[in-house]
Amino acid sequence: xxxxxxxxxxxxxxxxxxxxxxxxxxxxxxxxxxxxxxxxxxxxxxxxxxxxxxxxxxxxxxxxxxxxxxxxxxxxxxxxxxxxxxxxxxxxxxxxxxxxxxxxxxxxxxxxxxxxxxxxxxxxxxxxxxxxxxxxxxxxxxxxxxxxxxxxxxxxxxxxxxxxxxxxxxxxxxxxxxxxxxxxxxxxxxxxxxxxxxxxxxxxxxxxxxxxxxxxxxxxxxxxxxxxxxxxxxxxxxxxxxxxxxxxxxxxxxxxxxxxxxxxxxxx
Amino acid sequence: xxxxxxxxxxxxxxxxxxxxxxxxxxxxxxxxxxxxxxxxxxxxxxxxxxxxxxxxxxxxxxxxxxxxxxxxxxxxxxxxxxxxxxxxxxxxxxxxxxxxxxxxxxxxxxxxxxxxx
Lengths: 268, 117
Prior knowledge:
Chain A is mostly helical. In chain A, about 25% of the residues lie in helices and about 5% in strands. By secondary structure, chain B is mainly α.
């Protein structure tokens, strides 16, 4: 009898512990094609439109971060820019490219929908971006597009950096009418000491980050510290979206990919 | 010659009935321009030229002297009221961008001053 009780008790404990552990705030890891997705709903619902689903993966393969987040003026957080349909119609924000004239791979990029009364065809065009919860065919299929690109374990499952190095993607570094002409001055890379003993130090590539982001995207809004060594970064802050976390939580390779940053050999 | 005349008449009629915008649109439809409408203005306005001159130098910020940086910050401050007067869209876009440029120059200036200490 005692033995039976013990077995039942043990089974209860075995089944309950994992389920208890999962009741916390564990977030679902996004699927490769969902990583970087942003839902924009500044005014859409207010005007009885479906919110916009923005796919970072396709846009990042075509442009550097700087083009959109500095030159075109998109904020770094969803909703922060306060984009209106009127802005887009005037050729700003999404309208900087989605105007039916700007070319991509020799083909005009579809125009964003307008505020005017819409025909059925125009309505279909609106759905290409105002697509939350809809099944909308896209010009780019994630799996087909990423198939030839080098793989990575996390995020989109793509090593975007390597893809660019190999010439498989060629992100544009400027957009006519938006990017002021400026020579790119490449900054030097530097090390950051890891706080945890035994954890390899971080090799921060200023060079790569300057090419993609320019200077003003990171300084001073995201990285305020002026003197090297005066700013202290913690993984908790980063995972909350501060400093490196502004990009490396939701769009650039995620924090789970430790070795990408903690890359300095421990025994040189 | 006749064709030329006919084409001229058609263009004039279009301009007369529909305004110059229609002719401009018609001219643009086949051009596959990569320039956005905002940038297709006949001439860049004075504020925009000054904006380009200031903000096109952010990548070189580290190589500027303290005086140059201070002057760029001053120019940002002088330009802001002009951008404030623009329509809502351009105000939003360009004030945001100007804020970034100014922020960077101020950041670099502070960093240079700190290095001296």
